Structure formats: C-alpha cells, structure tokens
Amino acid sequence: FEVSNINICKGVAMMNIQSTKRLLTIIALLIVIASCTSTPSHFDQKLDESGKPQWVVQGTQTSKSQLGRSFLGVGVAQTNGEFSRQASAANQRAKEELERMVERFIEVVSRDYLASGSAQPSGYRENEAALQVIEMTDIVIPNAKIMEHWVDHDDDKIFAIAEIDYPQVVSLLSSSSKVNPGFKSYLQSSGEQVFDRIARQH
Predict the structure, then answer these.
(1) Fewer CB within 10 Å: C terminus or N terminus of the chain?
(2) pLDDT, tens digit (0-9, with 9 covering 90-100), for 11-42
C-alpha cells in the first residue's frame, strides 16, 4: 500500500511539473505575441500576386504612412543552404542601406540649414559639415532594428528589412552633446518637411 502511495504521489508530481511547463510555454508564447503586436511596423507587409511582400518589392526608402515617418533599409543575400549565416549577411546589408538613407536625410537637412543663413552664427560651418553628417549618422544607426526576413525559395535569396522611425532619429540627435545646438533646432523645426520632400522622390 505504501509503495502504491509513493507511486501515486510521484505520478501526481510529474503531472504537476508537466502542467507547469505547459503553462509556462503558453505564457511565453503570449508574451512573444504581445511584443509583436504592440510595436507596429511602418512598412507594407502585404503580398503581391507573386507572393512577395511589398517591402521586398519597394526596397530601401523613406516611408511616410498612416503609422508615421520611418527610414527603411532592405538587404539581400544568397542563402546557399545556410540560412542563419546568410541571414546575418542580409541583416548587415539592410543596415548599410538604412545608413545610406539616414545619412542622405541628415545631409539634406545640413545643406538646407547652411543655406538658411543661421548656421554660421551657431558655429556650424560648411567646411566641417560633411564630417558632422557622418558623426550624426553614426549616432543613429546603432539604434536601428531588423524587423523581418523573407526567403525567396525560387531564387534562393533571403531578404531582411531594417527600420528606425523618424521621431527616434530626431530624439537621438537632439539629446546628443556632439550635435550642434543650432542644427538641433533646425532639425526639430524643419526636419519633417525635408523628410517628406525626400519621401516624395521615391
């Protein structure tokens, strides 16, 4: 009788452990789902007739949508049967594309600021502008995120999309001690118009 009791207790304990594991798994899944849905993306995830996501078709761009303004970089790599390694390559290329778009935006803001006549009194000089554009881009890019991957099985390619939204770019530059105060003010007052001008060119 005692042996039976021990076996029953062991069985109940095992059932409790399994139930706890299942519960923890469900909770973990719910957390993942919640984290995905709580951060809306600024890129088009709809599929075209061939099954490609629109963000793959549209490529690298400055995007203005109902969700707001965002910089998007799309990278691609041949999979060669090695998904994880080539995913890293696609990620790197996506961030490089994103860097190109952010740098272009900051460069246009810089050019407009110099043309406004307000730059020189604030100490923002034309002969130093190119270097400052690179330094400001370097402040922004480490905060970009890889948002999604898509595999084209027909062409054996993997695509990645990197994103950073416009308000975050402005926030990062505005809070940095490395950025000229006059440039910060100009970015805050005129940055959206510059962004929209670039976005219309796509």
Answers:
(1) N
(2) 544 555 555 444 443 343 333 334 343 445 66
Bridge partner list, 72:
61, 163
Tokens 């805050």, residue? Answer: 188
Report the 10 Å Cβ neighbour count for 144.
21
- In the numeric block, the tokens 């993942």 are attached to 32
CA 147/CA 12 separation, integer angstroms: 43
The one-character DSSP state at 65 is E
Nearest-angstrom CA–CA distance, 3 and 9: 10
Measuring CA to CA, how many Å separate 197 from each of 50, 62, 69? Answer: 31, 10, 12
Rounded to a whole number of angstroms, the distance between the first and last alpha carbons of the chain is 80
Beta bridge partners of 14: none
| Length of the chain measured in residues | 202
Name the token pair of 95.
């961030």
CB 174 within 8 A of CB 184: yes
Question: Quick one: which of 55, 46, 42, 29 has its CA closest to 149?
Answer: 55
Q: Is the pTM of this model over 0.85?
A: no
Q: For residue range 140-192, what is the model confidence (pLDDT) as tens digits?
A: 999 999 999 999 988 889 999 999 999 999 999 999 999 999 999 999 999 99
